[in-house]
Amino acid sequence: MTKHDQVRFYKLATILVAIYIAFILLINLVIYRQQSATLKERRADYALIVKDADFKRQKWLQQNKLQVVTSQSPQHTKLERSVADVLNRDHTTRNFSVRQKIDGRWYLVAVHQSSQPTFVLLMPQQRFWHTWPEIALTVTVLYLLFSLIVLWQFKRQRSHFYEHLKILVANIHHIRYEETPEPIIFQKDASLYVLAHEVNQLNKDMRHMRQKIAIQQGSFDRLIDHLPVGVMVINENRQVVLHNEAMGQLLETAIEPQKHPYIDDIKTYEFTRMIEHTFRYRRSHHQYIQLIQNRERFVDANVVQLNTVKSKFQALVILYDLTDIRRVEQMQLDFVSNVSHELKTPVTAITGFAETLLAGAKDDPETLQQFLKIIYEESTRLTALIQDILALSHLDRQDQTQAQDIGLKAIVEANLELMQQKIQQKEIHVSVNIPETLTFKTQKMKLNQVLKNLIANGITYNKQAGSLVIALKLIIH
User: Fold this and answer.
1) CB 408 within 8 A of CB 439
2) What sign does the CA torsion over 207, 208, 213, 218 have?
3) Can you give the pTM of this predicted structure?
4) Is 428 helix (H, G, I), strand (E, B) or coil?
5) For 303-325, what is each residue's pLDDT tens digit?
6) Structural contact between residues 354 and 375, judged by C-beta atoms closer than 8 angstroms
7) What are phi and psi of 298, to 5 degrees?
8) What domains are defined for the chain?
9) What EC numbers are recorded for this enzyme (predicted)?
10) CA angle, corner 463, sides to 459 and 467, nearest 5?
């Protein structure tokens, strides 16, 4: 039992003892009143027989357990002296009764003063234990048994109470740590019934909540895993608590699912400095970084603070892969550089031969024909370069033309028709092995540009009297 219950136990025992004492006092009071009434009656009776023979008077006194002392009795004993003290007091009534302790024992004293000499009747005061000793012993034993049963029942109830309370506390602990609680059943009138009902309801609510959280967490994890950008969450202890597959691919490392220091995965100094600055200065950072794991990997790194509270501070790391974009930008720069160089050649040729013709060479028919042919070829080459530039411009604008079903063989034949003159000049044998019914759902302009470039390259870089085969092959990965 607890200290509080021990105090309650002692209080209950004290109350039981007090009840027993009160009961004894009440019985003694009843006996006292009965003795007082009896003594008054015996005083009246004694006044009538006082003149009878001494033997008869003594017998009556013995039968009624009385003693008599008169005012003329010598004061040799304590009893006689105590009676004398009673008689010498100033009493307003002629006949009175008092309670007097004489020689360590209480007596009921009845004084009769209506005649001479004055006599005093003394009756020993009876107690419950003196009057009915067997009954008093029985009552005491029964009450003692009753008290022991009450105290035992109290202790047993408190013991069961704390035992059940301990189970409920353990169940709350199990609920907190997602363990199975111990089943417990109470009657509706039990003191812990309401608490047990609430704990069971809490267990049901927590299970339902955890199921919802698990579903939401699963959806969130799938969303994070399918993001094309790298995601990583770092807690206040600089440990990785969340990441997705894209982050591991960008860092080119296998990130452990357990909590671990982020420096185990991130080896680039600029990147780690960004993260440390976010933790130190409590603000987000953004920077373009070339990862040390792969010198060809360029990323757009963002480190975002998620919570400003120090004990719950987290940093969200997001990496956008810029490698392809950088590669495309470099290709565009290289293309522009090459195109600029390629444009100079036909323009210079056209300008030079045109100046030569203007200077008088046009008067020679053979020279005129030769120069005009060169000017035509260079202008054709210049037109092709301009078309390539326009095609690249269309790709950069990301044309939003709706896709449509297009016959592949029809587009190939249309492009071959446009380049028929070049084909005849180089005497190239063309073979098209594409089914008539084969169609693609795509943007017609882009597909036409691709096929046009392929056919043009096949003609330009082909040998004289060579062959050009255009066929479709289905490759299943």
Assistant:
1) yes
2) positive
3) 0.47
4) coil
5) 999 876 666 789 999 999 988 88
6) yes
7) -110, 135
8) 3-131 (no CATH), 137-212 (no CATH), 227-321 (3.30.450.20), 401-477 (3.30.565.10)
9) 2.7.13.3
10) 65
